[in-house]
Amino acid sequence: MVKNSKSSESTVKSxxxxxxxxxxxxxxxxxxxxxxxxxxxxxMGEPSTQMVLRTFHSAGIATTISSxxxxxxxxxxxxxxxxxxxxxxxxxxxxxxxYDEVKKLxxxxxxxxxxxxxxxxxxxxxxxxxELTFSDSKLKDVGLKVDDVMxxxxxxxxxxxxxxxxxxxxxxxxxxxDIHATRTAFIHILNFMVSGLSGIKKAVIxxxxxxxxxxxTSGSNVSDAxxxxxxESDKIYSTDIFDVQKAYGIEAARNAIAYEIKSxxxxxxxxxxxxxxxxxxxxxxxxxxxxxxxxxxxxxxxxSVFARAAYEETVKHFVNASIFGESDPLKxxxxxxxxxxxxxxxxGLVKLGVKKSDLSxxxxxx
Length: 366
Fold this sequence. Notes:
Blueprint: E1 2-5, E2 11-19, E3 22-26, H1 36-57, H2 68-76, E4 86-91, H3 93-96, H4 99-106, E5 112-113, E6 118-124, E7 129-134, H5 136-142, H6 146-156, E8 160-165, E9 168-173, H7 179-190, E10 193-195, E11 202-207, E12 213-218, H8 222-225, E13 231-238, H9 241-248, H10 250-267, H11 274-284, H12 305-311, H13 314-324, H14 333-339, H15 356-365
C-alpha cells in the first residue's frame, strides 16, 4: 500500500496496480492543488491526435455512424444537431421474444412521409393543382392505404381540397392567385409525416445473444419512442445527448456524455482514465443544462477576462471589459500563464515563511 498525504491531519490510501508491466495508482482521491482541468485536457488531447492519424488509414471505409475525433468534438462542443444519432430500444420481455410482434412494432418507428409513398407527382402552379400517384408496394410495406393518407391530410390541411381517384390524390389549393403560397403548401403536403416517429430515418431489428430482439434506429426520438406499447420506456439508449436530457433529465445526459466519450476512445484503441471524461461531463452539465467547452459555453462564461480572451474573440472581451470596468483577480490557471505568473496549483500553492531572526542571519551571511 502507498500513502499519499492529503493534508497535515489525514492521509488517503491507494492501491498500486500493475498493468502491462507498468504501475498505476488506482482509486485515489484527488490531491489538494492538483490541476485536474489541465491534466484532463492533456489526457484527452494527446490521444485525440493519435485518433486523427488512424482516421487517415481508414479513409475508404463507408460508415453512417460518426466516430473518432469528429465524434469527440461533436460531444465536447455540445452541438445540438449531431451528424448521425442512433437509438437502441429495449423491448418488453413478451414482445422481445416474438419476432412477428417486433416486426409490427418496428414499422411504427421509421418516419414515413407522403413523398416516400408516391411513384410520381405532377404540379400545376398556374391552376394551383397537385396530382400524386401512390405506389401500391410502398403502401403495403408500411401497412397504409390511400384512404388513410387522405384522412390524415384532410385533418392537417383545411385550406386544400382533396379528391381521390383509384391510387391517385388530387389537390386544389383555395388561394389560387397566390403562386408562392401554392408552392409552399404543396411542399408541406409532400413532406407531411403520415406515420412513424419524427427524426427516425430507419429502424431495423437486431438480436441479442440470448435470442431476444431489440430495435436499432438511425435517428433519435426517445420521448416519442417511450410512448409506444411494447417498449421498455426506461431502457432506451440514445447517442444524442440532448435527446437523452429531454427524456430522462440532466443526470442521464451527464452519464451519456461520459459514456459516449469513453466508448469512442475505446473504439479507437485509446485507453484514458474515466475520471478525466467524468470531469468533462460534470463541467458541461454543472448548470443543469448542457454547455459545450467553447466560446459559447464554458470558456465564454468564465469570470476571468483573460481566460475568456485567451480562447477566442480576444479583442471583443478586452473591449467589453474596459467598457464595463471589469477586474480580474488572476486566480485561475489560464490567466496566470497568460501574464507569466506562477499558477496557483501544485507547488504554486505553497508559500514559504522566514522568521525575522533567521532572515537577519541570512542577510549577515550574504
